[in-house]
Structures are given as structure tokens and as C-alpha cells.
Amino acid sequence: MEPFRVGLIGCGRISDIYLANCARFDGMEVVSCASLDMEESRAKAADHGIPIACAPEDILADPSIEGVLNLTVPAAHFAVSHRALSAGKHVYSEKPLVTDLDDGRSLLALSAEMGLSVGCAPDTFLGGRWQTLRKLLDSGMIGAPTGISAFVPTHGTERHNPNPDFYYEAGGGPLLDLGPYYLTAMVSCLGPIRRVAGLSRRTFDERMIENGPRHGTMMPVEVDTHCLGLVEFESGCIGQMMTSFDVWDSETPRFEIYGEEGTICIPDPDPVHGANIFGGEVWVRTRETARWTHQPRPTGRDAWQVAENRHGFNDNARGLGLLDLAHAVREGRAPRASAEMAFHVCEAMQGMLDSPGLGRFVDIQSRCTCPDPLPESFQGGKP
Hints:
Elements: E1 4-9, H1 15-24, E2 28-34, H2 38-48, E3 52-54, H3 56-61, E4 67-70, H4 77-86, E5 90-93, H5 101-114, E6 118-120, H6 128-139, E7 145-153, H7 174-190, E8 193-201, E9 206-208, E10 218-220, E11 226-233, E12 238-244, E13 255-259, E14 262-266, E15 283-286, E16 305-306, H8 320-331, H9 339-358, E17 362-363
Helix pairs in contact: 4-5, 5-9, 7-9
């Protein structure tokens, strides 16, 4: 297909993996990059062989650019995406789509009015592992899903990030940082959420930065850092999710789906793998292979069946959602990593945060469609 011409706005650290992947994806081309710092823009262009370094306004004014890749800071996501749509560009944004639900509604309305596509990270659910999981579900291997669990226990970011302040400021915290990966994986497999509830707590009022030039500096904590959520899907499946910056260690699996005839398990020991990454094993047990059919029950994790993964994109394929959006524009369909799904996830997370103060479940007003599986034949690489 004719290459989909993209302009990048936001040249921070995360842009490197996006640009490296866009260079290997077939059907798209990043032709310019921009940030508020022109020196940063020029350096990024030089590092990745991008022809033009410019100001954001130049990208919006360029009629040859079809789409904007929005990798600005979360607080700027809405403004940049809104300006891009107003300029007639399709948009793919890093998560979150917005930090305010009214802004999200405005963005969806504008994209519909303009007839333009908006996509949003995370796109890990398009990776080989998660498409394999989706295939197992769709095949009926574990029967109708009845329950789902996600556990993301970490002890925060101050041990490895020299500037972790954002994670503990308003708009940060484990739910808003890690929750999008897991809730997006859930919705992409099970469909939209009907209602949510939550509980959360703030364990420390201050935390110490434990690496880099600011080692030993205390920073204030403005958000809750141990969050529990309950989820009811329209399908009737029910679920739970724990995201935390307060856990020193854990043996819980990252993600499990329970069905009438079996269980699917994402067993990763690393707490920030799971739905944060594209590849990895998918374990499954059915009625016939379950350990708990008799007593004494066997122990250990052996004898799980490892599902065959025949899909591509098992490495760090960030930007895959943008590639799918480019194909969607050419094919006249909705992108799989859609703004509608991203907004739905944002509303669910806000409901979990609002629930304790309200003392009740929060009904989710938005709805989204379950995205079609990514075909096994879709590889995306340049010949």
C-alpha cells in the first residue's frame, strides 16, 4: 500500500523504540519529528534518519502528513491530539488518551465529525502472546469465561528511575500507570465493562529516590499506591485487579482467565512483564489436565500446556497499534487499538478511583467493540 506518512510530536525517551519499529514496519514512514526543544528534535531526527526536524506547528500545517504520532507528556495528550484532528490528521497517541473524561468525549466527537481515526496505546494486546490467548478463548478451549484476575505487584519506580516524581504526583500512581495494559487486555478479550468498584490506600507520605544524582532525595506522594479493583463485564464475566507500588515480592501470576472448562495463565515472575510486553508463554489447563481432580493435590507449576504461538510481534513492538491504524485508514475500517477502547479503559479506571468515596459500584457509561483478532499472516515487516 502507499506509505502512510507520519509526523512525530514529542521526542522524549519513549520515542526511540517507536521510531526504531516504524523504520522496520511496512506501509508507513515517519517523515518529520518535532518537540518544544528544537535541539532535541534535531538530535532525534539525526539518530533515526528522519528527513525533517521542525516545530509542532509545521507538522500540523504539512498537507503531505496524514497522521500524527503523539508522544508528548500525558498532560499535553488531549491538546496535541485535538489540534492534530482539527488540522485534518489521523492520530495515534501514547497512553493515556486523556487525563480528563470530558476531554475524551470531546476528542471522540471531533474524530467522528472530521471522519478521522484516533488510536491509542497500549498496543501490547496485539502482540503474539495476547493474540494466542485470544485464539484460545475464541476456540472455546476453556469454555465460556467466568472470571479474570490480574496482579501487578511492584515496589514503585524510585529504585531504577532517577526522576520518578511523576509516578507519585496527581495523574500518576500504579492504577493509572499499569492498569491500562491489563484492562485493555481484558476488554480486548472479553468486551466492554458494565461496572467497577475499587479500594485504595497510600502507604507512605514520602519516598526516597534510590539511584542517580538525586539518590537520597525524599519526594512527596500525592496518590494512592496500592489499588484494588472489581470489574463486571457486559458478558457476565467478573474480575479483579491489583496494582501496587507497595509490594516487595510476590508469587502471584500476572494474569489468569477462568472458564467453565479450563484456565489460561500468564505466569511471568517479573511484575512488570505480563500485559506490559508483547511476547511470552501462554499456559493452559482444561478439565482433563487440571491438578485438582483428586487428593492429595499435586504441587508445583509443572505439566501446564504451553499454547502454540503462531503470531508475529513477540518482541518489543511498540508502535504496532500505529501500523494497524495506517492499514485501517487504507482499508476503511476502525483501528484495533481504538480511541473508543482507550476511553472506555480510562472511564473504568476513574470509576475505580471514585468508587471508595461514593461507597458503591460505578456504572460505566461508554461502550466499545471487541477488536478483531490480528491475522496470523499479518507480519508487518518491510521486505
